[in-house]
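stage 2 :: seqdesign
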């Protein structure tokens, strides 16, 4: 672990442990079972697969350098993992993170608000939208579309619809029951709690949160 100008940075091993806790991936084997070992190996494979697909967006300094992960990278990977957990293909999940990051960063920030220390929480208002998201399935709508037949890179992405209360989300979900629903108030809350366990100074925590907020608002 190291602290850099971009805020707290964690190693690949710590990232795997954090995501395993967030998404309830078994980390220890039960008696006579290798479930935990297999679960972690599968998680590591998914992280590598997402890396090959461009998630996270942080470039590796050199070919031989070990990539470290800040809050933005954890959020990017977590969003892709949450989409994959809802049976979206890795390639399509990576596209959503790369092409819809402003919406997903808004979702991430809203999901983390309750985990932000009270001393700085007032600096981060609930973003317009909320910590719940719905993505309507639209693959069937592309049937017969020549561009869509060329591969996942050509499939039009459905909008990321954000909600701040479950009732409004439920009404919308009734209209498209096959949609994917994300609750960032669960997985992003857990992620920030895990990172706060390293006790980063307030200024480092602000750097990490500001980076997410800037992505959500489209600011540099």
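stage 2 :: out
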């Amino acid at each position: 672990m190291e602290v850099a100008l971009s805020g707290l940075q964690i190693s690949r091993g710590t990232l795997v442990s954090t995501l395993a806790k967030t998404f309830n991936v078994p980390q220890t084997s039960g008696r006579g079972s290798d479930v935990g070992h297999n679960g972690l190996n599968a998680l590591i494979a998914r992280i590598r697969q997402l890396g090959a697909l461009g998630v996270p967006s942080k470039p590796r300094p050199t070919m031989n350098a070990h990539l470290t992960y800040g809050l933005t990278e954890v959020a990017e990977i977590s969003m892709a993992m949450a989409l994959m957990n809802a049976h979206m293909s890795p390639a399509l999940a990576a596209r959503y993170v790369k092409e819809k990051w402003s919406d997903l960063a808004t979702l991430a920030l809203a999901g983390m608000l309750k985990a932000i220390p009270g001393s700085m929480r007032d600096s981060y208002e609930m973003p317009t939208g909320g910590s719940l998201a719905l993505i309507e399935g639209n693959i069937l709508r592309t049937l017969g579309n020549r561009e869509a037949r060329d591969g996942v890179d050509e499939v039009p992405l459905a909008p990321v619809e954000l909600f701040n209360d479950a009732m409004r989300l439920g009404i919308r979900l009734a209209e498209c029951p096959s949609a994917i629903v994300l609750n960032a108030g669960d997985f992003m809350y857990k992620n920030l709690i895990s990172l706060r366990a390293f006790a980063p100074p307030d200024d480092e925590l602000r750097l990490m949160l500001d980076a997410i907020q800037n992505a959500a608002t489209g600011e540099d």
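stage 3 :: structure notes
- The CA atoms of residues 1 and 48 lie 20 Å apart.
- The radius of gyration is 18 Å.
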